[in-house]
Amino acid sequence: MEILGALAGGFATALTPQNLLYAFIGVILGTAIGVLPGIGPALTISLLLPVTFGLDPVPAFIMFGGIYYGAMYGGSTTSILVNTPGESSSVVTAIDGYQMAKKGRAGAALATSAIGSFVAGTIATVGLMVGAVALVGLAVRIGPPEYFAIMILALLSVTGLSGTSVPKALFATAFGLALGLVGMDNQTGQLRLTFGISELEDGIDVVLGAIGLFAVGEVFWVASTWAAQQREERQTLRGPARMTREEFRRSVAPWLRGSVVGFIIGVLPGAGAAISSFMSYAIEKRASKHPEEFGKGAIEGVAGPEASNNAAAGGNLVPLLGLGIPGSGTTAVMIAAFQIYGLQPGPLLFTQRPDLVWGLIASLYIANVALLVLNLPLVGLWVKLLDIPKPLLYAGILVVSAVGVYSIDRRPSDLVVVFALGVLGFLMRRYDYPIAPLLLGLVLGPLIDLNFRRGMIMTDGDVLALITRPGAAAILALGFVLVLVPQLVRLYGRRSGRRELATIGEVDD
Amino acid sequence: MSWRHSDAVGGLAVVALGVVVLAGALTTPDVAFGVVGPAVLPSIFGALVVLSGLWLVIASRGVPEVAVEALDVRPLALSAIAVGAYFAAFVPLGFVVSSVAFFVAMARVLGSRALVRDILAGSAFVVGLYALFQMLLTVDLPQGVLPL
């Protein structure tokens, strides 16, 4: 009952005309940018971060809630109508979604993903509320060793689940962690890894990481495959986004299964929306009476994964709000949003700023309803965004990126950092290195450092004592299980002969 | 083992990057404060980067090269130059001038041949952004050569 009371307070905050307006602006911006090819939720939030600089934290976070859910919705439109999806979490949707569009059922595919996203978003937000509150209750009893273990868990799973190659993921993770430690050490004032460059003393902001790796890196990648980009095929949307009764009937179970799978995967730090949509697809294919239709336009193959990637987005917020630990590239960027306001997400925030936390949760419910209302009738309008000529689109993304980078600290040297990260992002993308672990490492680096060193003070420098505390040991054991499970899943995927599933790439959501 | 395998080359580059991180970490004065000094974790992360690079080199043996898209060198090089020049000119020339010039140049690099449209679209977009940031959001953007 306590939760319901707090939620009612949250709705009271979120439903003021001003905050409602920000929720709607967030939803519209999020969907619009999410629809644009090549821009995922992490980049969307990074690019829109400066827009909120002048706002109070409550409306700013309400807007972020809308942007976050909106970007997840928008991605499905691109993957259904264009055969090259922009985000890895939509790769699976594209398999059957694009086939449906080719058969003239684009409207049905868009409808099942919009309604599925609504169902999943609502279920996940309920789960988020219960899960985050439970974690907050737990969090008061755990100390630095357990926080350290949870972050190791996040890194183990993001490395093990990244799908491509373990050494490549290990590089991304370790290098990200090292980048996160660049600058002045908070505990001793000692400069680390700055190589005498004074501009690096304040460290590398995660927003610079997201914009460099995703925006600049993406544009370089697009330029480097220019000939291939010209071959892109696009399907048109005819008529309204609507399903037949039969299609609706076939979608219901995948929505619900996808929501549950997505939420559970999303809660595990390090496992993101891409993994959950891939698992949901595999589950639907097994559950279906017509597995032969998969890959040729089975609506279950759109309904399940689309529900699961939205549910995972909600699940990702559980460790973020409950413990202050980001579990994905996107939530890593959200940490930056909190830090701009001098806030640290986690158990304390629930007691210190209940208006903000519960206002954010309430606004996620509102965003979900707004997205359903905006997406079903107006999908034709969103599709028009795909008409923007690509050269102008990418030029525009870089102009907005430059403004975003500059407006953080008004420091021209940040642009140099972003350029370097763009080159790195391009090389990583081209040679199939996962990018999300790097971004996650960037944020977790300082947090791990802090908790490891605090924990070591508690145990008088005994590493073994640190990792064998019951809580920490249990969490680390879970981490090792998580690293092993995906290897088995991949083996299964290979055996069932679905190459596109076995080779699904990185988790850069 | 083929040294032309992209994973072998990448692995060596990763090792080099890791050595740089390690060198930076090991030269950090380890001021004693608490139990673990500031250089410990950077050293571990640097070592992990080196390890991942070696692993990549070894794992590339006998594995066929993954198919990568053909590299369009010209648009890639031109876009890198355009972005580099834009970032360098952002403050000295100011946001409006550098952004409009970059917008038009970048669109051309990426294949647009409608110069007039690009100039109009770029100007409208950049001025709109300027108005949004400078006036509504009160973020000061560099003025540069324009007396705005």
- Give the % helix of chain B: 55-70%
Give the helix proportion of chain A (percent range): over 70%
Q: Give the total of beta strands of chain B.
A: 0
The strands making up the biggest β-sheet of chain A line up spatially as: 1-2
* Most residues in contact, chain pair and counts: A-B, 73 and 77 residues
Which sheet architecture does the biggest sheet of chain A show? 2 strands, antiparallel
Question: Could you list the spans of chain B in which at least 5 consecutive residues all have pLDDT below 50?
Answer: none
Mean pLDDT of chain A: 84
**How many whole angstroms does the radius of gyration of chain B measure?**
23 Å
Secondary structure tally, helices of chain B: 5
Termini gap of chain B: 61 Å
Pairing-aware structural class of the strands and helices of chain B? Answer: mainly alpha
Could you characterize the architecture of this molecule?
The complex is a heterodimer of chains A (509) and B (148). By secondary structure, chain A is mostly helical. Chain A is 74% helix and 1% strand. Chain A has a two-stranded antiparallel ribbon. The radius of gyration of chain A is 21 Å and the shape is globular. The C terminus of chain A is likely disordered. The relative contact order of chain B is 0.10. Chain B has five helices and no strands. Classes of the chains: A mainly alpha (509), B mainly alpha (148). At the A-B interface, helix 8, strand 2, helix 9, helix 10 and helix 17 of A face helix 1, helix 2, helix 3, helix 4 and helix 5 of B.
